[in-house]
Design a protein that fits this description.
The complex is a heterodimer of chains A (138) and B (499). Chain A is built from four helices and ten strands, in the order E-H-E-E-H-E-E-E-H-E-E-H-E-E. Chain A has helices at 16-22, 58-61, 90-99, 118-121, and strands at 2-7, 29-34, 48-53, 68-69, 75-77, 81-83, 101-105, 116-117, 125-127, 132-133. The longest helix of chain A has 10 residues, at 90-99. Chain B is mainly β and 499 residues long. Helix content of chain B is 2%, strand content 41%. In chain B, the strands form seven sheets. In chain B, strands 1, 2, 4, 5, 7, 8, 10, 11, 13, 14, 16, 17, 19 and 21 form a 14-stranded parallel β-sheet that branches. In chain B, strand 23 and strand 24 form a beta hairpin. The chains are: A alpha+beta (138), B mainly beta (499). The A-B interface holds A 5, 7, 11, 13-15, 17-19, 21-24, 28, 30-33, 37-43, 47-48, 65, 67, 73-75, 78 and B 4-7, 9, 11-15, 17-19, 21-22, 24-26, 44, 47, 49-52, 89, 91, 111, 118-119, 121.
Amino acid sequence: MAEILVKAVSASHVDSEKDRRGCYKRGMPVVVMPDGHLWGLEERMPKFAVLKFPLISVTRVQKYIAEQLDGLGNPFRRRLWRVRWDDLPTQDRNKLVSTGQLIVKATDVYTGPFDRTWTQVKGFFLNQETNSNETSDL
Amino acid sequence: MATKTIKAAGGDYTSLSAWEAGEQANITGLGPSIAECYSMADTTAVVIAGWTTTAADYIRIYTPITERHDGKWNTAKYRLSVANATAILIQEDYVRLEGIQLEVNAANAANQFGISISGITATNNEIHISHTIARTHTNTSFTTNALSISDTDTIFKVWNCVFHHRGGTTSGSDRAVSISSATGWIYNCTVYGGQTGIRITGGTNVAKNTVFAGSGSNDISVTAGTLTCNYCITEDGTCPVDTGNQRNVTVASMVFADVTNTDFHIGATSTLEDQGTDLSADANLAFSDDIDGVARSGTWDVGADEITSSLTDIVGFSLIAAISISAIAATADVAGFTTTAATNLGTFSAQANIGGFSALSSVSLGNLIDLPSGDMAGFTFSCTTSLATITAVADIIGFSAIATSATGTLTGLDPFNPQWGLNATHYDSRGVRQHISQIRESGSYIGYAAVFNFGPGLSATFTAHRVVTIDVAPGASGSFTTVDGKTVTVVNGSITSIV
């Protein structure tokens, strides 16, 4: 029962250190809310898109909004995980731009409409610390 | 920059974290970027970073008064309450927090704070935190602070805040406030709990009118740098000897309302009362209210709260001002109230009963307003010159207004309960009754009893629905007109005609 608000545009800073450490980039998950959350007027395109995971608990996807920390525990990037937005299939990118959301089926219990399965999507979730894609199930 | 709202529904954003992500930008030349937070539980940790701000183009995160805590932790108002991180991490140069509640609400890993300021790289910066409550979880297993400033560049100004470490005094790294190598001012704050109340490890810091307590024998710890204290109070003996400071003041004598639930309002007998100094013209950080937004006056109290009697019943209260009283507002009963002002009493308002009230002003009473549902029973007002306006929405019973010269307007607004008992007697220096310029009622009154004492030499106009009793003094002469057009003429102590 989770929805992830994902940044749809990148912010930037002239200071490269602040840019890396402080600026949200396109594809970074920002907030996790329960299914059916009534998002705010600004929490939509062009600033954000929503990835919906029907019947998946908030706890299961909470890890995607964790910060990336350096070896001393200090902030290194805004988020450890990032959706490789530009690598998504054109169809999915177009869907995100036109509707602002993508419904991801991540459990067999869910029988409603969806755009992609978690199996299809998880390979686009990049762990920026290890530079490897997600392989785990939800 | 525009103001954006953070609301559970119907606003621009549904979390402060999403606001920060959505508005993050170089705002130089665009004015302040403002997050207006409404009553809700916001549970996602916030990091303020990646912006470009200036002294004029700052980030302001605040709550409107209606959405703000009432000086104590309030779960009905906006609060940033996170379980697994620092509630808010500030890494930007110019940020202002105002009227926010922040807490770490679960036992987590170490170094998770209510407010953390670090990673500020610019020499020019200024962080403001006011009217804010920050508190830790009760667990003492991990290092946690209500406020942590761990950046050598930080310039901060903090006032009217509560920093509450709820974990006791056993863990060595638990502090209500921890500051390393910053430059800042902490005024009128309440710093409570932790193994250390405030720990300074560098920088130049100034505290005024601030109380440090609940931290065993470590209310103040300065291992490097300086903390100059004036008009500060500690429970233990760590407060430095300097102007206005006090040490070894017991927590019991401070009379905090409810420490367990982070309510540091102080009671009427608190040893913090009237022990501070007026900071309204302080060169570094000037303000004139308390954490509740109540105006501070007279000799200021120490800590975030300024005692005010308007929050509960006022019984047997006596207020004496040498010059003027601008406003008194009560939200509950006012009983046995007496005020004596040498000159003006501006406005007195009560939202409930005013019983046995006595206001004595040697010059004038501006406005006396009894708001909805309030009776004025046994009310006595006396002033030596003029009375401007008395307004009652409900009953006025046993009211007595005495003025040696003019009474401006006396108005009753309740058309359904017209039990007026007006006995207005006015005497000049010769003992001669003087005039009331106007008596006016806006409702359709029936059956009320108005007694008018009609003195010699009277010449006045009344706008009244009905006068049941006219008390004519011996030798009085004059006339008055009622609202239904009757002219009452008095000659030498007798009513000669009603036309």
